[in-house]
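About this split. The held-out portion is used to measure sequence recovery: a designer receives only the structure tokens and must propose an amino acid at every position. Recovery is the fraction of positions where the proposal matches the reference. Here is one held-out target exactly as it appears in the evaluation file.
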């Protein structure tokens, strides 16, 4: 079992460009998924925006980024979220429950269309957290 802490950088329309640049600079493997590919299009203008992008380098760096859909506000104070991910369901669920105390839940921790369990919240200090449990049971 494992848990990872990853920076997750938010954009309105520049995630693809930023990830491409970081890939050129850092190397590694770049994976992206658009809102259309993820089955999460609410506004057709968002279809080709990056729903999730991930750059993993041979040296162990992991950088994630996405575009905000038009239904969500553009990040203003900070465009960085904290993402906790892994396959330790009990530990990650415990983190979620602790962070949820006094938080604003943006997306409840539930089974996501891509097969994992996912949730997003802004904690009582204004920090946005994403929790993704790989392959967790429904």
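Reference sequence for scoring:
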């Amino acid at each position: 079992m494992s848990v990872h802490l990853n920076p997750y950088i938010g954009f309105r329309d520049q995630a693809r460009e930023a990830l491409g640049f970081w890939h050129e600079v850092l190397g590694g493997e770049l994976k992206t998924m658009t809102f259309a590919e993820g089955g999460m299009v609410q506004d057709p203008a968002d279809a080709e925006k990056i729903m999730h992008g991930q750059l993993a380098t041979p040296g162990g760096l992991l950088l994630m980024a996405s575009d905000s859909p038009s239904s969500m506000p553009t990040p203003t104070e900070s465009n960085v979220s904290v993402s906790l991910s892994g396959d330790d369901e009990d530990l990650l669920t415990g983190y979620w429950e602790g962070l949820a105390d006094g938080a604003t839940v943006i997306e409840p921790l539930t089974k996501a269309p891509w097969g994992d369990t996912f949730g997003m919240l802004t904690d009582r200090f204004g920090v946005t957290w994403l929790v993704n449990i790989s392959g967790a049971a429904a």
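Annotator remark: Helices lie at 15-26, 89-100.
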